[in-house]
Design brief:
Layout lengths: L22 E9 L8 E9 L2 E7 L10 E4 L4 E4 L1 E6 L17 H13 L2 E6 L6 H10 L7 E4 L26 H12 L5 E5 L12 H13 L3 E5 L3 H10 L3 E2 L10 H10 L2 E2 L3 H6 L13 H4 L4 H6 L3 H8 L4 H21 L18 H12 L4 H16 L14 E4 L13 E6 L2 E3 L7
Parallel strand pairs: 1-4, 1-5, 6-7, 7-8, 9-10, 10-11, 11-12
Antiparallel strand pairs: 1-2, 2-3, 5-13, 13-14, 14-15
Helix pairs in contact: 3-4, 5-6, 12-13
């Protein structure tokens, strides 16, 4: 399934079946643990039963006799990435929407592709159907390989508006009264999702926007069921109103104007998660000229040949250039980058997400591109990595996201240091998920 899209390789590490004891020592690498602490040079990482047991300098950590030693000298270890805003089952080839895309086979292939790219966990933001709950059972039982996922189930939009607009057949709730909203939240909550997703946007004023009384009812009812409510937003004033209503996460950037002290203070007071999704905004205009990363072997390794031929074609670029919103979309990214730097410097909790999985937003590669855009916005590589590992993972509330004792051993082995150049996260030579080696993507030069 996945092998039809990817050519895979792996560092000279024993296969999972050969690590019978589940006790492994990774020795000699630089460790970026995801906490923001200085890297540990020439380190040892002990793993047992899929859990990290110890991390420290090689001359400090004693390797027990029954641990299998694996030399990773000169390499860099860091946690697998965590994407707090993604979608599955929207397209088969990464570019074109398909009614057949939401299937267990395709979703399974996408999860495997994500993991091969070094993304260990994702949160699916409101575009799921009931199939996702049986897939969740399969994953929890160990029957579904690939990246781990959390889901919002069916999200909440507006009739004739977002998501998708009047012509799109999105399988989401579209309540027209607060009472309908509460009833639909209760129906979603019965499936025990991880959170509730709402869309608050008007597509540059062209579509109806969710009324405040509707989203207030959704947020309140979600909280009654101990579920966090997360919002798709664009405008500063919508962010301000949602924060007053108790929203738990803003899953896109504020892009219409600079953030103000009131919104900054509210984000900090409520410890609200802010997820920039810069690469989502880049994807809304960049195809008109052809993104430079179309030639990146790391990108090309995970995309079907037909799509690779289509993206740089004159016809595709002309179609993209005809979008009347092209200039506004470019301006939106610029404002998003400014606001990200302002909010991060102010101490707002900044997470990590991409909106990948929608047409033209490529799962796996886009997570690495998001890191690059965060650094372009003014964050250091270390700051961006912490957003994409510890902070993003803590929002999901689980024992992963850092290379520390008692954490799940979800590890990337890199051939170069991403603190020197964030693009070095693309140089993956090995992946460990829960202490087991997984074949990573193999770029074709």
């Amino acid at each position: 399934m996945l092998k039809t899209l990817l050519a895979l390789t792996i560092l000279t590490i024993p296969a999972a079946a050969q690590i019978d004891s589940g006790k492994v020592a990774l020795v000699g690498a630089r460790v970026i643990d995801g906490t923001g602490n200085a890297p540990i040079e020439d380190a040892t990482v002990l793993i047992s039963g899929g859990i990290i047991q110890a991390v420290g300098a090689k001359n400090v950590i004693r390797i027990p006799a029954d641990f299998q030693r694996i030399d990773v000298e000169g390499k860099t270890l860091m946690p697998l990435l965590v994407d707090d805003h993604a979608h599955l089952g929207q397209t088969i080839n990464g570019l074109d929407p398909s009614p057949d895309a939401y299937s267990d086979e395709n979703i399974g292939a996408q999860l495997e592709r994500l993991l091969a790219y070094g993304i260990g966990t994702i949160a699916i933001m409101g575009t799921d159907r009931d199939l996702i709950y049986s897939l969740r059972e399969d994953q929890q039982a160990g029957r579904l390989p690939g990246a781990h996922f959390y889901t919002a189930g069916r999200g909440f939009g507006v009739k004739g508006g977002a998501p998708g607009g009047a012509g799109a057949a999105w399988d989401v709730n579209r309540p027209e009264t607060p009472e309908e909203a509460r009833a639909e939240v209760r129906e979603v909550a019965a499936h025990h999702p991880s959170f509730v997703k709402i869309w608050v946007d008007d597509s540059y004023g062209r579509a109806p926007k969710m009324k405040p009384e509707i989203y207030r009812a959704i947020i309140d009812e979600a909280h009654r069921h101990q579920l966090r409510a997360l919002a798709h937003i664009y405008y500063l004033n919508d962010a301000r109103s949602l924060l007053a209503a108790g929203i738990d996460g803003l899953m896109h950037s504020i892009r219409d104007q600079p953030v103000d002290p009131e919104v900054i203070a509210s984000l900090k007071a409520h410890n609200t998660l802010y997820v920039p999704t810069l690469v989502r905004d880049e994807s809304t205009f960049i195809y008109a000229t052809g993104p430079p990363w179309l030639s990146d072997p790391f990108f090309r390794a995970g995309v079907p040949p037909a799509v690779l031929d289509k993206l740089p074609s004159a016809a595709f670029q002309q179609h993209a250039a005809a979008d009347p919103d092209l200039g506004m979309n470019s301006d939106s990214l610029s404002m998003a980058e400014v606001n990200l730097k302002t909010l991060f410097d102010a101490g707002v909790r900044v997470g990590f997400g991409t909106d990948a999985g929608m047409p033209g937003r490529f799962l796996g590669y886009f997570e690495h591109r998001e890191l690059q855009l965060m650094v372009q916005s003014g964050l250091t590589p270390m700051q961006a990595i912490v957003c994409a590992t510890r902070t993003a993972a803590q929002f999901l509330g689980r024992d992963f996201g850092t290379l520390q004792p008692a954490q799940r051993a979800d590890i990337m082995v890199l051939d170069a240091n991403p603190l020197e150049d964030i693009r070095n996260t693309e140089k993956i030579i090995a992946i460990w998920q829960g202490g087991k080696p997984i074949k990573p993507i193999s770029p074709q030069q």
